[in-house]
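Researcher: Quick sanity check before group meeting.
Model: Go ahead. Protein one:
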Amino acid sequence: MKKIITVQHPQSEQHTNGMIGSLGDWDLTEYGIAQAHKIGQNLLREIGDEPHVLYSSDLRRTKHTAEILSSYLHIEPQFSPLLREFDLGEANGKTKQWAKENNTCSVWPGTKDWAKTVDERVFVNAETKREVALRVAEFMEKVVTPTKENIIIVSHDGTLSIFFALWLGMDIEMLNRCNLSGKSGGVSILCEDAAGHRIISRLNDMSFIQL
């Protein structure tokens, strides 16, 4: 049975400074660094001596998370732009207040930058969910599907929500009606059995982050 563990990066600077995350070069906060160390310790207990490969988004906050996990798991991380967070176009470098006042389409309740439909652009030049799904599908085709190895993926809330949907074989249009959202520092465990059935056995498990 192939196992995939996903890690949503813990607290980073855009969680505390009022800025948009997206492609911003934000690092982890001191608290986020402590959280990443705790995730590394708990992941080591979770996987034991099972071999895994480690992939991460190449943005600063995920890269730093992966490097901390690597110090516990002794796995050299591989970085991929395919795992980056949504590109929010003109909102990059702007505040969350600016985003709230300048979105170009309807957004999910309680969000500032999550379009209600898969083909709407929440800001000028922003990626749509469908476009993110295409690059996540490329990562899955190149990395996930061909290998029988266990995989650890460090990425972002929006990107991982798309990853989970594709893992389950959901039609992208389903994301007009549902969302598999996560929380900072959440760990999810996915598996594929010998018959090719895809399972999410744990979604957004926050116990890994407990300090």
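Researcher: Fine. The other one?
Model: Protein two, sequence then structure:
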Amino acid sequence: MFKILITFFLFVFSSTLSNDNAHEFHLSNSELKYKESKDVIQLSIKIFIDDLESALAKRGVEGLFIGTEKESENSVQYVGEYISDVFQIMAGAELLEAEILGTELSEDLAALWCYVKFPIYDGCSEIKVSNTLLTEMFDDQKNILSFTTESGNRSYFTFDAGDKEKTFSCE
């Protein structure tokens, strides 16, 4: 009986270890910085690659192999289009246009840093951020955002499926 129990636990334990692509939480981390001197808002998003590829596959974009030697030359374009759709910033009545600058693998190779800028042409007193990143995929998705200004003001917010918008002061 003891051997059967040990064999069962080893099987369960080894099968959880062999599932490299799965993780038990769905989280993104974003840093948003308002650079008044440069008339731009800079965004850095850290997102799990497997979750991002799943979201892109749901939109019909497959085979990107992000972070591998076989990575598609169009992967940054598709990632940028996705981020433009799910992460939006309004300054006053103006929807700011997202411009993807590039991507970079995280140190652990499980996540991707995405770099985006949003030019601002008429100044900024406050912004309204809409963040639905991966909420179409996972009910438990949490998107943590840190917003800073050049004057040193800092705000934090966690977006999820039920709380998708937040207004921040640019001052």
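Researcher: One line on it for the slide.
Model: Residues 25-169 form one domain.
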